[in-house]
Amino acid sequence: MTTRPARAKSEEMTMQQLMGMMQGLQEAMAPSKVEQERMQADLAASQARNDELHRPNEELRRGWRVVDEPETASPARGFTTPFSQAILETAIPNTFTGPKVTFTWMEDPEAHLTVFHTHMILVGGSDVVRCKIFMSTLTGMAMDWFISLPEGHITSFAQLSRLFRDQYLANRAPAPVSYDLFDVKQYQGETLKEYISRFGAQVVKVGTTDEPMIVYAFRKGVCPGSFSKSLNRSRPNTFAEVRCRAVEHIASEGEAYEKCTTAAPTRPRAQIHTQPARVHEAATERRNPDRKRTYEARRTQPRGGRKEGEREIDH
After folding, report:
1. Are residues 148 and 194 in the same domain?
2. In angstroms, rounded to a whole number, what is the distance separating the alpha carbons of residues 152 and 15?
3. pLDDT tens readout for residues 194-251
4. Residue 312: which residues within 8 A CB-CB, separation 6 or more?
5. 162 neighbors 192 (Cβ within 8 angstroms)
6. Domain that holds residue 22
7. Rounded distance, CA 40 to CA 47, Å?
8. What is the pTM of this model?
């Protein structure tokens, strides 16, 4: 049996060993703990950098710049408009729609304003509504010009129209003159209907009321033909008379063309006249004189009219 002092001594050694082992473990875990703390610090720094990088993107997404000011300060305004405050405060009803045309910067300003006025006559609207809807028709460089105007400068649609015309004055088409009618010629292969429609459109564009000049320009432009000869024989006095005579000529030409292109009807087979057999045979013999006849030749009679076998009567 072991004595009590020996047992106490062995227990003391076991405790010392356990303490040594625990101290060794703590010493071994100390570097990993330091490394873990360093990694947590790096992770926190990286998260802070990411937040700093994402902040400009959030500012752009919101549409305004975040300024380090007190929370009571309002964000800076990023879009200016040349409309006055009275125009900006007036709301447009949802029933109003703008015309389906756009103006970039190369189109004719007068043509664009004409289309816009025509649309607004149909839908109606006040002067303020016209200003706002006209702004929606501008795109590209035209919108850049509109935004560049001084803030609060435009107070009416008449002022906006005048500024718009002055800005794009170089794009305006030259005003037509009366003598432009003499440049309208009938093309080769162009029908009279197409030519008179094109000539009439040019008359409307020129806006002249000189009827003798209009008629003379039309006679000079029409191609030589039956209609041109009829105009020279009986000269019309007004362009309306030219239209009426052209309509009659077009109708007569259409009927003549239909008659020329329509084939004559064929006779039904039951009504076809057949030649008699003897007539058909005689016609065939004339075409073939060497063909042998199927019947005997006629005998010649002697002189005096006597037939064979008859006896002569003595006087």
Report:
1. no
2. 91
3. 999 999 998 998 888 889 999 999 999 999 988 988 888 989 999 999 999 989 888 8
4. 306
5. no
6. 12-67
7. 11
8. 0.48
